[in-house]
Amino acid sequence: MKLNKYTWIFVGLIAAVYLGTLLWVRVTNPVCLQQNMYRTWEKSYVMHPGADQSFVNTSTNNNHQKPVALSESQGYGMWITIMAAKKGWASQKDFDRFVDYWLAHRDYVGDQHQTPTYLMSWRQYYNRHHQWVADVNSATDGDVYIDVALVAAARQWPSKADYYRSLAKKLSSDILAYEYNPQTRALTVGDWVTKDSAYWRLMRTSDVMPYVFKILAKATGDSRWQTVNNAMLDRLVDLSRQHHTGLVPDFAWITRDSAKPVKPNTISTKQDGNYSFNACRVPMMLAASDDPRAQKVLKKMLRFFSHQQYVTAGYSLNGKRLVKYQSASFSAPIFLAVSHHRGEGYDNLFDSQKYIFSHPLTRKNYYDATLTVIAALEGLN
């Protein structure tokens, strides 16, 4: 059967529409995925104890009847909200609710906890009398993430930039006053660690954030952030060199010129000296840094992971699997790191770790969900 020219034109139009649709789906799919994940995360985990406050619920199985807020999750919540705002999915009011909750739950220092700071109390929860209470002491990782989110907010909303910058400088000053060891030149794990503490020389490897430190140094004009960056990166390099895998532990003992993994149950769990649920964030923390030391540590780890049949939820530092199952808390930071290094020999990891986006975002695990959303918003571009 011979087709006339009008039939060919019709066929051509159909083909063009089909190809156009495929292209549209290819281009917009990541955006739709990002938006859906953010919306699901926000609806599932963000709670509003008052009209002007928000926090991220970290309780087991996301129990809304017995919620738990952490300074760590507050920092992540503020950072995620900034990224969503850049895409038009969150508002300045959404961000300010997180700010107001943080300001309402600041920590106090001193022998009698009498001196107010801009550090955040590390945990809030309902006690047995159903009163919303805040634990004393801070956690450094949460404070640093809140700080960098405030700097980003000043860029995102210029009309309120002076307010955000002022808060960022006050928080930065308190981090360096109460969460800094001048002997090791590194951040401690919280304001409860003083020079008389047994944990004075303890470093949490996921607190090594060179990209963030660089931003804070520029935003605050405080050169101590560059000192912190150099000291903590050098110690991370020391730890990376100690094993062919390049894996680093959750925690390490450090001096000004050395580092060694801690023993099991030193501060948190029996996995303290392994690559576990703290150190799993290290690839994410190093991903955007242009510091050669950070990239050296990161790429050594990525080479190890790229030769694994699949990435599991924890390893000994010599590369032995601690468990047989996978976890988005481990895979999401790896995916984000590889997204910054496409075409450098790790594309198999980029493809394999995308499994975290192949099913709906979990509504029962704050840590998995939050790290997955960060990986989606920063890595799916």
UniProtKB/TrEMBL annotation:
One of its GO terms (biological process) is carbohydrate metabolic process. It comes from Limosilactobacillus mucosae LM1. The chain crosses the membrane at residues 7-27. InterPro entries: 6-hairpin_glycosidase_sf (IPR008928), 6hp_glycosidase-like_sf (IPR012341), Glyco_hydro_8 (IPR002037). Gene3D superfamilies: 1.50.10.10. Coiled coil: none annotated. Keywords: Glycosidase, Hydrolase, Membrane, Transmembrane, Transmembrane helix. This is Beta-glucanase. Belongs to the glycosyl hydrolase 8 (cellulase D) family. SUPFAM superfamilies: Six-hairpin glycosidases. Pfam families: Glyco_hydro_8. One of its GO terms (molecular function) is hydrolase activity, hydrolyzing O-glycosyl compounds.
